[in-house]
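Example pasted here:
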Amino acid sequence: MEQKTFIATTCCILTISDTRNLETDTSGKLIQTYLETAGHQVISRTVVPDNPELISQEIDKLSEFKPFCLITNGGTGIAKRDVTYETLFSTIHQEIPGFGEIFRMLSYEEVGSRAMVSRAFAGFSENGFLVFALPGSTNACRLAMEKLIIPELPHLIAERQK
């Protein structure tokens, strides 16, 4: 296998939750820890309610930072209030379907058939950043960061720079 070259990038973390704030947002903190430990720079970490308009407004604000990567957590399930998928997927210009597929496969190994209700996805948005939409569960975020995002982020950056 070819040796991967590390490329650090700027990242924003957006937690979508009606019940958490920055203090109680264990998933956002975990994502930040993984990114910073790997050598990436987190330039923003915010929490917004599960509301399409507020999510879109926050994405517009975050785009001013010009991050390469946006990782969201929360709102990817099938509850009526879960609107992350509908709000964010519509901004995806180039999907990375393998991310959601592999994430659900790995989740299945941990939680069984409940993994099928996750609508986690990844892709490049119209405004050019790499978006990972993760469930709000801290265990799900750990799984995604450990097994998929941290190992592949440098490769995704390098591919996008070609």
Remarks:
- The first strand starts at residue 10 and ends at 16.
